[in-house]
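Researcher: Next entry in the queue.
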Amino acid sequence: MEKDFLSIITVNFNGGKYLDYFLKSIILYPPPIPYEVIVVDNASRDFSFEKAKKKYKNFLFIKSKKNRGYGGGCNLGIKYARGNIVVFSNSDIILFPDTFKKLLEEIKKDEKIGLIGPKLINPDGSFQPSCRKYPRFKYLLFGRRSFFTKYFRNNPITREFMYMDLKESENGKVPVESLMGAFIMMRKKVYEEVNGFDENFFLHAEDTDLCYRIKNKGYEVYYFPRASVIHYHGKSRKYLGIKSIYLLRKSIYLFFKKHYKLNILKKFILTIGLILGTGFNYFTHIFGKKEY
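Model: Structure for this entry, 292 residues:
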């Protein structure tokens, strides 16, 4: 019987001190099974990758000559992975002592688990929503960074889209449509069955697209709040500035185009919705209000 081996793949883009925090937390709170750490750098310019490579001699470091996006970075990293179980992680994560243990115990219980992710916690200890419904027309103006979500946080559409009323089930894990890709665990064979991340999604929705295809293969996507990590959300995204807003809307459009049948009317509604959403995002970006 094959022994379990875990490949931890993190994608770094100007991660600064947070990459060091993450790698240090792996050493402090390692998985209970044999593991490897693969650090993929997306053409960073802040020397975070070089500093980490010099400090963490036992980890594998891969430098991409260009920014491949998060999904592209994950796809590059897994080419070097030896594990039958894989974690894809942002570089701005800090682990808890039992994070790996709890997730590994859960994923090994059920072969139908296609992907599983822990509860995300903000650095101040507050809850960070990480579950999402698939993009649909009704949610176009109610994303996490949208005007309506920021200024009318308790509106029912945002609460539905972001699973704000999610309750932990008796067995701990909860089936959801998709999870943020900040820290996710899956079997390598499932990754291979769905052909990994779609690199057409440069930033945003690459995780949603992955979850969509995993569920279409008959697997389940689970949120598992009994395990948790701290997530310094957006620490790399800030280097993209308002370009991140454009990339978000582009990825939503790609998701609709890839997975839904769109007639002329639906394309028109989608385009108008995305234009309005982009305008609202720019407004909230300029005038600012803390995101969920």
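Model: The mean pLDDT is 90.
Researcher: Noted, moving on.
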